[in-house]
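Standup notes, protein team

Yesterday: finished cleaning the Sphingomonas brevis set.
Today: DUF6065 family protein structure.
Blockers: none.

Input for DUF6065 family protein:
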Amino acid sequence: MDLHCFVTPEWEPRIRPASPKRDWMDATPEAYAYRCLPLDIGNAHGWEILSPCSFAAVWDGGPAASSVHIDLSQATQAPFVPVSLFGAGILTFHIEAIFRTPPDWNLWASGPPNSPKDGIAPLAGIIETDWSPYTFTMNWKFTRPDQVVRFEEGEPFCFFFPVPRGAIQQFEPRILPISSDPELAAQYQAWSESRLEFHREMERNPPTDPSDRWQKLYYRGVCPDGRSGSETHEVKLRIKPFVKSD
């Protein structure tokens, strides 16, 4: 399927496949946070747009657009710099492009997942990119006043990926006792018992190799009895970069 980014004449897009890496995950002992496959996949499940400049911003707590103060003194080559447009402590990045997805596909856009930033939080939006001729903005909301927030040049400020329109409304959510699915209940019980025994074994005989300190069942995509959980199980995403064309 095609995903096109039609850029305006002066905008130089800095778009890349999202990185699975996070500084805080690197800093965990033995980088154990990367053992959580859902985190890894979530980090990399889309594309990132990078800041065109380094800058600092602070919100004084007021409701007006002028209450957000942006220091662009370090923005050496910075067309389309961030602005304060909406008020209410919101910082805005203009994305001077129109994205096109296949029919009935939207773009989900927000900040990089699992990447907390002190004093400010990304807002999320869904854009109907199969028909809209309009650009969109990426917005961040300050969470408290008088907290200076920095973005460095090349730092991701937007993260996006396609989602099928209307799919979420087709689900019929229900809450059921696990006993209503005997096979699932048996698998869960087997996993629960094996996990408990695994932890006991780790206490009795601590392994020397850090990779042996976790079970890896979900990571390997296998059920407690060793059967494959899914033929399409993913441990790494290979997202294609945007290719520039005339």
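Follow-up from PR in the comments: DSSP finds four helices and 13 strands in the chain.
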